[in-house]
Q: What sequence folds into this?
């Protein structure tokens, strides 16, 4: 039973960290596209919050910082993803991923501003991210440390 439990822990850590590690790699490999996408998202949000000059000013302030924000996103995904995957300070890593995922989910998957089939897709992504956040909170709040990955595995 102990072997099965360890395999499940390792598999769970792999599954939850893979999306972040792949996301970081994608951002690195497609740097300019990622930066342009972030600028577009921030610009779209400016049009959505036309009722508030303060929010528009805040978004205007962030646009020139897009490269720095992309670097921070990559660092959060890499450090948090590796931490969870390897079981080294996994609570710290889960917290880092939560801090990355909450604003990302709200900014990128703003289903409340769109209509039609695009809305359905954004709702699905939004809910998927909420599920991942829930899994990360479970790691963060777990009382015992998860077993570390041993190379080679010891059963």
A:
């Amino acid at each position: 039973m102990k072997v099965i439990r360890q395999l499940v822990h390792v598999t769970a850590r792999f599954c939850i960290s893979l999306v972040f590690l792949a996301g970081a790699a994608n951002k690195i490999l497609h740097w300019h596209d990622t930066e342009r996408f972030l600028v577009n998202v921030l610009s779209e949000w400016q049009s959505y919050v036309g009722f508030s000059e303060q929010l528009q000013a805040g978004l205007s302030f962030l646009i020139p910082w897009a490269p720095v924000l992309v670097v921070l996103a990559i660092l959060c995904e890499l450090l948090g993803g590796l931490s969870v995957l390897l079981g080294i300070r996994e609570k710290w890593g889960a917290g880092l991923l939560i801090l990355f995922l909450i604003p990302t989910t709200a900014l990128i998957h703003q289903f409340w501003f769109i209509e039609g089939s695009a809305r359905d897709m954004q709702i699905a992504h939004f809910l998927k991210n909420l599920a991942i956040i829930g899994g990360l909170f479970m790691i963060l709040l777990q009382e015992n440390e998860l077993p570390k990955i041993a190379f080679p595995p010891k059963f």
In short: The mean pLDDT is 89. The first helix runs from residue 2 to 29. Residues 2-141 form one domain.
